[in-house]
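hey
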């Protein structure tokens, strides 16, 4: 979907598309970190950026959908986040940050996109990426059905260079209680999660 299609989806939603909380694995990893500067890539209607801001992070929420960003900015705490309309292929932060998070960013060039956002992580900083795994199709989980844009642990590992230590890169099963949609979905889903730290 392009930006115009996402704008249409957000405008048609009743208050937002995504759940109000970030994925459980993102909460688990980032809760153990000291707050600093962060970028939430493909922030959508803002759930991860808002969650981080509530915990003291100075957060930028990046998305190419102006409608999604408008929903995010209108949510409680929305004024604590710097909302930026931009494309992950072209936008660049003014300086590296302590944390870069990307949830469910699926593109034809996903490996290149992950490699690009990894460059935004400061030395000693953390990269967290989570998205639908290719095995999610067979599992019947919610999400894209095109394997060309889905993740595998091998794809995400291969997107990083020698500057990163990979602490975790694996498939995880997310229950319907940890649904990404605001209205939930009945089936469990298979994701890939990457947790890496840039060397100092």
């Amino acid at each position: 979907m392009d930006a115009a299609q996402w704008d249409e989806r957000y405008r048609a939603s009743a208050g937002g598309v995504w759940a109000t909380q970030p994925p459980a694995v993102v909460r688990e990893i980032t809760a153990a970190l000291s707050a600093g500067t962060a970028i939430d890539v493909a922030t959508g209607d803002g759930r991860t950026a808002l969650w981080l801001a509530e915990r003291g992070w100075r957060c930028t929420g990046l998305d190419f959908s102006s409608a999604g960003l408008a929903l995010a900015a209108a949510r409680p705490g929305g004024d604590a986040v710097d909302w930026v309309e931009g494309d992950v292929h072209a936008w660049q932060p003014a300086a590296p940050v302590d944390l870069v998070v990307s949830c469910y960013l699926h593109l034809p060039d996903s490996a290149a996109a992950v490699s690009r956002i990894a460059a935004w992580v400061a030395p000693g900083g953390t990269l967290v990426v989570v998205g639908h795994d290719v095995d999610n199709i067979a599992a019947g989980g919610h999400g894209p059905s095109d394997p060309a844009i889905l993740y595998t642990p091998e794809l995400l590992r291969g997107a990083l260079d020698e500057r990163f230590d990979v602490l975790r890169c694996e498939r995880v099963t997310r229950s319907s209680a940890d649904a990404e949609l605001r209205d939930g979905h009945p089936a469990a889903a298979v994701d890939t999660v990457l947790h890496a730290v840039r060397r100092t």
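The chain has one domain: 3-198. The first strand starts at residue 37 and ends at 41.
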